[in-house]
Amino acid sequence: MTTTDDDTPGLRSPRITARIGVALGVSFAICFVTGLLSHWIQHPPTWFDWISRPIWLYLVTQGVHVISGCVAIPLLLAKLAVVYPKLFEKPLLGSPARALERASIAVLVSASIFQLLTGLLNIAQWYPWSFFFPATHYAMAYVVVGALAIHIAVKLPIIRNALDGPVDRRASDRRAPSGLTRRGFLNLTWAAGGLSALAFAGQTIPLLRPVAFLAPRNGDGPQGLPINRTAEAAGVIGPATDAGYRLRVAGREVTRDMTLDDLRLLPQRTVNLPIACVEGWSVGATWTGVRLADLAALVGGDGSRGVRVISLERGLYAVSDVPAAQSADPLTLIALRLNGETLNLDHGYPCRLIAPNLPGVMQTKWVSRIEIS
């Protein structure tokens, strides 16, 4: 028999559970799709080609990814609050169909908590674990979506019935022992979701920056841009400030070693581009430097292929493979100046990559070598 609102007094009702579940499912779906996009940009499958315009596209998709994930946190907590007694109903397993349902719920709850918690810590750049976050977060996203699909398939008749009618159906069921009505609980849940969005949305939306009270990046930093990784942390202060610094531009048959003065003598271009990071923050800035396409042309590159940019830094993000769309785009620079000033050491001095519509993690700082395919 399908459980109805009349059978479950108080807040623990399929009617309220289903409504929160729908909102949570939408948040998860948005977060999943935008997260896949970010992962594919950074680790592209062979079939995937990313575009360079509009220049604000990644800024929007990654901002939506982080905001939807943050909104999902109070929604998940609210749903657990109204269903947790049923999670431990006996028999815990029972028939094979019930065992499958219970297993899918256990996986869904644990994987969802893992995704949201680790995602939140990634925003704050705190990693109290030894696994590689991007790969693990990517894999677990499929686990969450798979478990969610099974859960929806099993519960679909109950969900349909629960959504067909008002939240407060019977006067005796309208209040929990605390005095909170079902409608009041739902409104409180929506308000918590909205507050979570505001708490972080200012990282992406400048107008909301003053109210982004939980956002770890608010635009402060040298030359008006936040810093995720300093030159000291990257271990590049010595080579980046060495008077003997050379930028090597390597083509198939021609290689050129260029001093900082050589770069300054080349035609300089100024562009306005945002830098958007996977943690959800983004800031617009004015960059001046040499077009990457012009440097490629010096060694026989024609801009039709991707370009590899290598940093003085060593480690996971020392190399960036710039897609062909960005390498040929006239807005893509090897920047020497930021907001009218010589590039700050923490922002990549002596020169750095800045390209439209790429994650900040791919905008290589302290560039030492450019390889033209």
From TrEMBL:
Protein keywords: Membrane, Transmembrane, Transmembrane helix
InterPro entries linked to this entry: OxRdtase_Mopterin-bd_dom, OxRdtase_Mopterin-bd_sf
Superkingdom field: Bacteria
Domain Oxidoreductase molybdopterin-binding stretches: 243-373
Transmembrane segments: 20-41, 56-84, 105-127, 139-163, 184-202
Keyword flag Isomerase: no
Entry-linked Pfam families: Oxidored_molyb (PF00174)
Name under which the protein is recorded: Molybdopterin-dependent oxidoreductase
